[in-house]
């Protein structure tokens, strides 16, 4: 018989008390999640749901986990990145008896082990997936396909995972219904943009303490993440160059006053390079060899394929670990490259990720999506197997509404006359589906 | 200054004393007359017995010291080996911060790299990706104890704690004589 599964696996359970203190502060910064607890704490709409979650095990995620539990769900958790776990957050969740398998600094093999531990709830398998990046979704589809029939839905947090879902939908390989949480306006236009705007520079500063003012920074990719990254670098006084493949985004960047050029042309001028494309092979061996001495290179896209770290490891004449997640490589030319978080998400590897408030927007969407798929979809009529959906506009607006009070926002209400003039209900939805914000 | 003495000839030359030279070692005080020729022989025999006895005592003491030397040498060697092993273990690859008091599992990748994991071979189950080398506890003095040696180490710790307690109690429970 296989040995009993570990109850949890975290770096240091003694950090739980510290984690709990930070969770309590985060709760006050996450009004969306806390209002869901108040609204659904008694009716417990997620009763019976066994949610396997694979999402950065941070303090903010701890508040999400405890919200899902307050709504009646059983939850098991792993992190979706080998460096992103906050060990005190994981410990605080573990001591409550929630099975969590996550620590900062997993190997790739340990990472998959952790994800796999979240699939069986005792003798019963998961029946809901909450994913960030698609690793859990892919694991269950590939290694446990027999469990897919029992899964009522998948909610996906991020751009990369959403791409994966649409690809599966097109190929006909998606075996459950899925909600694209990422493209809720209150997610991607907030977390990706305002989250990165604060956490990118925080990660770079914690790692290097570099003076940003006056430096040349290259941001590869001008999507929501690239926009936030570029804006904060500029706010610190960097001269920011942008590279883009999409003419619309490239034009946006130009209209914001950024110089838009190619990575090949910009890189030799740059002191700091940030990749935010979601694509592969952005910083290639040729680019590395064109860089100035001690250029800082980091990534804020979901996967670690944007920077060719393998080439650096194989071809650098020297690699010095300055501290965890900060490596200084010496190339044959004598120039150095400072690589952050081994080319993985720099804001989570070198910092503590996005602040709580913006994550409350994302995670309120996640929770609402889980409720939708669990309560409205027992027969797959509303949300069909093999399809990817977005949350309706009213729910998106509701997520935003839940965050206004905390900021002291006073919302204007349409008068019946104005409502009639515009043809828009007084309580919304205010915008058509195609509106881009 | 150069040493002019030829190699192998130190100043001290060991004298061989055969039984026929026994009486050579015995002398009466200068000026005293021999009353009985046997006196000198008896004296010589007595000296011989003393010599033997001293030699035996010295030999016995030296043996004890030798044993202690051997034991110390062994301890020194063990100490050096443990230090080397601990250093090697600390240099094994590890992506996370190691916490004293916890067990860690050492594995070897196909590339030859050794690394610490939080996962035991049992937790890996059949999916264990790399060769398992051993389980170690990181002690609070940052030395390592092999899992198999843990019971002994804990026994020692308990003993040491007991001794410390007794010592403290002796010092703290002074009762004046009534």
Automatic annotation (TrEMBL), chain A:
Q: Which Pfam families match?
A: AdoHcyase, AdoHcyase_NAD
The molecular function terms in GO held by this entry are:
adenosylhomocysteinase activity
User: Which parts of the sequence belong to the S-adenosyl-L-homocysteine hydrolase NAD binding domain?
Assistant: 192-353
Would you kindly state one Gene Ontology biological process term found in this protein's UniProt entry?
S-adenosylmethionine cycle
Q: Which UniProt keywords apply?
A: Hydrolase, NAD, One-carbon metabolism
Query: Which reactions does this protein catalyse?
Result: S-adenosyl-L-homocysteine + H2O = L-homocysteine + adenosine
Instruction: Spell out the family assignment given in the record's similarity comment.
Output: Belongs to the adenosylhomocysteinase family.
> Gene Ontology terms, cellular component aspect?
cytosol
Q: In which pathway does it act?
A: Amino-acid biosynthesis; L-homocysteine biosynthesis; L-homocysteine from S-adenosyl-L-homocysteine: step 1/1
PANTHER family given for it? ADENOSYLHOMOCYSTEINASE (PTHR23420)
Q: Which positions in this protein are listed as binding NAD(+)?
A: 158-160, 223-228, 244, 249, 300-302, 347, 354
Per the entry, what this protein does is:
Catalyzes the hydrolysis of S-adenosyl-L-homocysteine to form adenosine and homocysteine. Binds copper ions.
Supply the EC number(s).
Answer: 3.13.2.1
Among PROSITE patterns, the record links this protein to:
ADOHCYASE_1, ADOHCYASE_2
Q: Which residues bind substrate?
A: 58, 132, 157, 187, 191
Give the cofactor binding note.
Binds 1 NAD(+) per subunit.
Gene encoding it? Answer: Loc646627-001
Q: What class of enzyme is it?
A: hydrolase
The protein's required cofactors? NAD(+)
What SUPFAM superfamilies would the database entry show?
Formate/glycerate dehydrogenase catalytic domain-like, NAD(P)-binding Rossmann-fold domains
Q: What is this protein called?
A: Adenosylhomocysteinase
From TrEMBL, chain B:
> InterPro entries from the xrefs?
DUF2452 (IPR019534)
Q: Which Pfam families match?
A: DUF2452
According to UniProt, the name of this protein is Uncharacterized protein C1orf50 homolog
Q: What's the gene?
A: C1orf50
């Amino acid at each position: 018989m296989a040995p009993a599964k570990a109850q949890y696996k975290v770096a240091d359970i003694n950090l739980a008390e510290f984690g709990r203190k930070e969770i309590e502060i985060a709760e006050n910064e996450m009004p969306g999640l806390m209002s869901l607890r108040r609204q659904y704490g008694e009716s417990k709409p997620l009763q019976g749901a066994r949610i396997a979650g694979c999402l950065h095990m941070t303090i903010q995620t701890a508040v999400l986990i405890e919200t899902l539990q307050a709504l009646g769900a059983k939850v098991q958790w792993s992190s979706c990145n080998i460096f992103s776990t906050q060990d005190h957050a994981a410990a605080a969740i573990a001591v409550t008896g929630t099975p969590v398998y996550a620590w900062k600094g997993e190997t790739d093999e340990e990472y998959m082990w952790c994800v796999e531990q979240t699939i069986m709830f005792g003798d019963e398998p998961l029946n809901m997936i909450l994913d960030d990046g698609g690793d859990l979704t892919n694991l269950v589809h590939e290694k446990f396909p027999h469990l897919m029939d029992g899964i009522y839905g998948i909610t996906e947090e991020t751009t990369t995972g959403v791409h994966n879902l649409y690809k599966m939908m097109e190929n006909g390989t998606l075996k459950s219904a899925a909600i694209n949480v990422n493209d809720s306006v209150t997610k991607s236009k907030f977390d990706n943009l305002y989250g990165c705007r604060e956490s990118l520079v925080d990660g770079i500063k914690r790692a290097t303490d570099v003076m940003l003012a006056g430096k040349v920074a290259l941001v590869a990719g001008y999507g929501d993440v690239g926009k936030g990254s570029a804006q904060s670098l500029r706010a610190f006084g960097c001269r920011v160059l942008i590279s883009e493949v999409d003419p619309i985004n490239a034009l946006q960047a130009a209209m914001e006053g950024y110089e838009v050029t190619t990575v090949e042309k910009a890189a030799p001028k740059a002191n700091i390079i940030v990749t935010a494309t979601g694509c592969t092979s952005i910083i290639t061996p040729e680019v590395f060899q064109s860089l100035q001495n001690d250029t800082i290179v980091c990534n804020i896209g979901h996967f670690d394929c944007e920077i060719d770290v393998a080439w650096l490891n194989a071809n650098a004449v020297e690699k010095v670990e300055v501290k965890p997640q900060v490596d200084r490589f010496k190339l044959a030319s004598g120039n150095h490259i400072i690589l952050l978080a081994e080319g993985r998400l720099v804001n989570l590897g070198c910092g503590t990720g996005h602040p709580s408030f913006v994550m409350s927007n994302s995670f309120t969407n996640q929770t609402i999506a889980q409720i939708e798929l669990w309560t409205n979809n027992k027969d797959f009529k509303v949300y069909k197997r093999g399809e990817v959906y977005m949350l309706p506009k009213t729910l998106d607006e509701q997520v935003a509404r839940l965050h206004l009070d905390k900021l002291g926002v006073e919302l204007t209400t349409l008068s019946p006359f104005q409502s009639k003039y515009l043809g828009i209900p007084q309580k919304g939805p205010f915008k058509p589906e195609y509106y881009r914000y | 200054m150069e040493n002019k003495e030829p190699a192998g000839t130190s100043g001290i030359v060991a004298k061989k004393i055969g039984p026929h030279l026994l009486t050579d070692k015995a002398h009466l005080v200068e000026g005293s007359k021999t009353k009985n020729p046997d006196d000198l022989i008896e004296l010589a025999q007595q000296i011989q017995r003393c010599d033997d006895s001293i030699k035996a005592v010295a030999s016995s003491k030296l043996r004890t010291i030798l044993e202690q030397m051997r034991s110390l040498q062994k301890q020194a060697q063990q100490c050096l080996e443990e230090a080397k092993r601990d250093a090697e273990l600390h240099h094994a690859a590890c992506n996370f911060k190691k916490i004293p008091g916890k067990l860690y599992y050492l594995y070897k990748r196909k590339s030859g790299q050794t690394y610490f994991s939080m996962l035991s071979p049992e937790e890996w189950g059949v999916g264990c990706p790399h060769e398992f080398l051993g389980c170690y506890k990181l002690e609070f003095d940052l030395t390592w104890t092999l899992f198999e040696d843990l019971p002994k180490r804990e026994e020692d710790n308990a003993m040491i704690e007991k001794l410390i307690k007794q010592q403290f109690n002796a010092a703290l429970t002074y009762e004046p004589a009534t």
